[in-house]
Fold this sequence. Notes:
The chain is of the alpha/beta class and 551 residues long. The protein contains 22 helices and 12 strands. The protein has helices spanning 16-34, 59-62, 74-83, 100-107, 156-166, 188-206, 212-218, 225-235, 248-258, 310-317, 323-328, 339-342, 344-348, 354-363, 376-392, 394-411, 419-438, 441-459, 468-471, 478-481, 484-513, 517-547; strands spanning 2-7, 40-45, 86-92, 113-118, 128-131, 139-145, 171-176, 270-276, 281-288, 291-295, 304-308, 333-336.
Amino acid sequence: xxxxxxxxxxxxxxxxxxxxxxxxxxxxxxxxxxxxxxxxxxxxxxxxxxxxxxxxxxxxxxxxxxxxxxxxxxxxxxxxxxxxxxxxxxxxxxxxxxxxxxxxxxxxxxxxxxxxxxxxxxxxxxxxxxxxxxxxxxxxxxxxxxxxxxxxxxxxxxxxxxxxxxxxxxxxxxxxxxxxxxxxxxxxxxxxxxxxxxxxxxxxxxxxxxxxxxxxxxxxxxxxxxxxxxxxxxxxxxxxxxxxxxxxxxxxxxxxxxxxxxxxxxxxxxxxxxxxxxxxxxxxxxxxxxxxxxxxxxxxxxxxxxxxxxxxxxxxxxxxxxxxxxxxxxxxxxxxxxxxxxxxxxxxxxxxxxxxxxxxxxxxxxxxxxxxxxxxxxxxxxxxxxxxxxxxxxxxxxxxxxxxxxxxxxxxxxxxxxxxxxxxxxxxxxxxxxxxxxxxxxxxxxxxxxxxxxxxxxxxxxxxxxxxxxxxxxxxxxxxxxxxxxxxxxxxxxxxxxxxxxxxxxxxxxxxxxxxxxxxxxxxxxxxxxxxxxxxxxxxxxxxxxxxxxx
Length: 551
């Protein structure tokens, strides 16, 4: 199967629309080849070809039927169109229609028609000419980007033109607004998501047509209107008020500010100060309920300050280096309210519009529901029940503990169980059974403290300490595991909890032996509470302390 990609952009290989078209063809090709059908792709870059304007002489109709009097590259274009089974028309929107390069090609298709008038069976337009060649089996897809926030309402003249010579309903379209964003490396995460959807559309088209769900996702805005327009304005590198050219670092800062998500507003204004240490410049970004604004005079009171080389921060924004990794290596420092850095993806993240999220949910309908992320509650319930119930009554308490172990998978059924949940359920069940048979509740409870402490300590020998296996989902999932600050904090906390419970086993043994059993009830309840408070404090303090550049 031959696929012809007509790149009608004056930018040639640098075309943003071309990126979408190539993603579509990649999906189309992969799907066909997965079924054993070979796909041959040829791309025509009109910017590097010679295709003159039509002279309107009609020589191709009356003098040399089917052959144009202009001898240029159009002859090979027509031949390749006749050989193709799929033609992908890729172009940017220029003044609400196709660029002049592509319009020339469209005009020069005249030799492909017969001169005689015929009935217009499509019901569109007032007349028609029959095709000189049988192209009834050729499929067509239009792929285009434009510079407005939305493609909606901007392609009416394009579709009317293609309706005339392809026939209404005889082609598919992928029209995307915010096209210039595909050329911004710092936004590659969001644009990459869109390109994956385009690729999916290609797969579906190979099997017949693009699904409604995928088409809806293709029509979803890359960014909300206000975010895009601020990005677009900042991208010109010109001050909107004075008309003077902005420096590269100021333009970059304005672009970063444009990505601010107003939904992340927490009830009070924040001021992020960016100090580019290699340039000696500093800018403040006011983050409020109504949006963001960049100040260059340093007049605001800073709440969070980032001191970084400009090129480093630009590399982080492009995804060339992980921000957390760079921070752990003290390549930049942060002072002030560190919570802004912890919530960075929410505040400046590549926010998907609600309609996009809704379409994702719809496309998932009918599929098996996905289990929720693991919860530490699954691990703690059996242990807490075990210690409390055995302290009240060994025989009956051990039975209650066994019952809870059996019920936890049902109670927490919506959450995925991980190794620490399963080990805890097994350990508590075995200890409860031994306690019921032996009647030695104090000894078995003490062993339970020891086992629980060992779980925490042993987990420090693996890729993820016990606590990280649960809380990482609140910090970006697997991305959090790549964050040295996050992992170091969790290794320290896991070791601390492990040591605490091993010490608990030790002092419990000696205090009981000394006759201070009642004191244990207070001690063994208050100390874990105090440790929990310390954990909450440390998880915030440690990253902020490291971010200040402390070794």
